[in-house]
Amino acid sequence: MAGLDVKIPSLKLNDGTSIPLIGYGTGTAWFKSDPDGPIDRKLVEAIKTAIKLGYSHLDGAEVYHTEAEVGLAIKESKVPREKLFVTTKVSTNIGDIPNAIDMSLKRFQLDYVDLYLIHSPFFASSDAELQSAWAAMEHVKASGKAKSIGVSNFYLPHLTAIMKTATVAPSVNQIEFHPYLQHVGPDGPLGYMKEHNIVTAAYAPLTAVTKAKPGPCDELLAQLAKKYYVSEGEIALRWCIDQDVVAVTTSGKESRLSDYLRALTFTMTPKEVAQMAEAGKKKHFRGFLKDKFDENDKS
């Protein structure tokens, strides 16, 4: 469904900036094992295609080794910088955040990113280490090198640790989120995030229609796809959007990227959103960070 003329809506963050509700991801499938490897032209072209279709939110990370590709795509797209929302994450160089942001900006060929995240809390062996890293992130924001700052893969103990000493609250926590991982366990962060106006960004939002099939959501996904004349994947994206959750997804296919935007052409009813959530709670599936959690931990 090429050429769908829709504008991706944005969500206001707790620092006054806004984030587009659908992001184009440049990790996972695009991951490069060699940080000094050649430019992946296929990815550059895929990002340019995404930008052309209307994806303004580009999600990267230093550990993906694709920041140079993102920067090149931005440059070649000739879209004004202020029209784009660029996210990256620090992990490899977490011990030197001031240098890490400078290196990321150099690879991007940009003066700033819109959102800078600590990619994971699991580097830290104490609350003090988390708090020190967060203080460094606050300095990055103050310097203007990142418009907004946040975290990724943080659970309740990690969030409460940094908030004890924070002068700036995280704007975003990017986590795996889909019907089969709603973080309902004791360390689930969503209630605390709502209390502190921290936006949830979902990676792997299509899990219920991809690697977690078959499952208890299958029948409802099929019914809703038929009702709204879209694919099950677009239902999965809309389920996030209708909860004010930012959905980060990816594809190298223009037709699929265009189809994803059909998620913006309808709204699920509150009852349908709740039905999906209830069906999802009948199955637990975690696609990432399996080594960090007990297999039955739904946090």
Describe the structure.
This protein has helices at 41-53, 67-77, 97-108, 127-143, 156-163, 190-195, 218-228, 232-241, 254-260, 270-280; strands at residues 10-12, 18-20, 22-25, 57-59, 85-90, 113-118, 146-152, 172-176, 199-203, 246-249. Strand 7, helix 5 and strand 8 form a beta-alpha-beta unit. With 299 residues, the chain is an alpha/beta fold. The strands form two sheets. Strands 3-4-5-6-7-8-9-10 form an eight-stranded parallel barrel. Strands 1-2 form a two-stranded antiparallel sheet. The protein starts with 9 loop residues before the first strand and ends in a 19-residue tail after the last helix. It has ten helices and ten strands. Helix 1 crosses helix 2, helix 2 (67-77) packs across helix 3 (97-108) and helix 4 (127-143) packs across helix 5 (156-163). It is globular, with a radius of gyration of 18 Å. The model has no long low-confidence stretch (mean pLDDT 95).
Give a short overview.
The chain has 299 residues and is α/β, with parallel strands linked by helices. 35% of the residues lie in helices and 15% in strands.
Give the N-terminus to C-terminus distance in angstroms.
37 Å
Instruction: Please give the radius of gyration in angstroms.
Output: 18 Å
What global shape is seen? globular
Order of helices and strands: EEEHEHEHEHEHEHEHHEHH
